[in-house]
Amino acid sequence: MIIYFSQGGHTKKVAEKIAKKTGDQLYAIEPVEPYPSKTLKAAPRIGREIATQTIPEVKKAPVDVLSDDVIYLGYPMFGMDMAHAMRGFLQVNDLSGKTIKPFMTSGVSTLKMSLKTLKKLAPNSVIDETFDPKNL
Ligand SMILES: Cc1cc2nc3c(=O)[nH]c(=O)nc-3n(C[C@H](O)[C@H](O)[C@H](O)COP(=O)(O)O)c2cc1C
């Protein structure tokens, strides 16, 4: 299963590329209050969430979304770390015992900059830090 958050579509594109290669299904996480798809409109909210360290409420995924042992987990980098919407997802969805293959899109930030947050929010998962969708 490929679980991703994408505000502006970049991460969605990468998720879809992974799906083509692996045949996995896609699940777009759903914030209770959706972000505008136009980045100019979404940016003030994202900026506020970064400044105030606010985690938005995110819907719980259906059980079948969480049934695979391997989860590809994708998010944009916002404020040099994992997008807050993905943090909200990990707070209400338990990925214990699973292998997480994380990927991200960003301007300049690296995946590594988000791994501390990922490990904190998925403490009982195996994180494949070497995963890179380009190598699929
Ligand atoms: C409010 C805001 C903050 C951002 N912060 C960062 C950042 O800290 N580091 C970075 O490399 N890119 C940053 N970006 C760029 C996004 O990570 C990049 O455009 C990403 O591909 C967006 O993914 P999406 O289209 O799937 O939402 C930021 C973008 C926005 C709108």
UniProtKB/TrEMBL annotation:
Pfam families tied to this protein: Flavodoxin_4
An example molecular function term from Gene Ontology annotations: FMN binding
Sequence ranges assigned to domain Flavodoxin-like in this UniProt record: 1-136
SUPFAM superfamilies according to UniProt: Flavoproteins (SSF52218)
Top-level lineage group: Bacteria
Alphabetized InterPro entries for the sequence: Flavodoxin/NO_synth, Flavodoxin_CS, Flavoprotein-like_sf
Name of the protein in its database record: Flavodoxin, putative
Organism placement in taxonomy: Bacteria, Bacillati, Bacillota, Bacilli, Lactobacillales
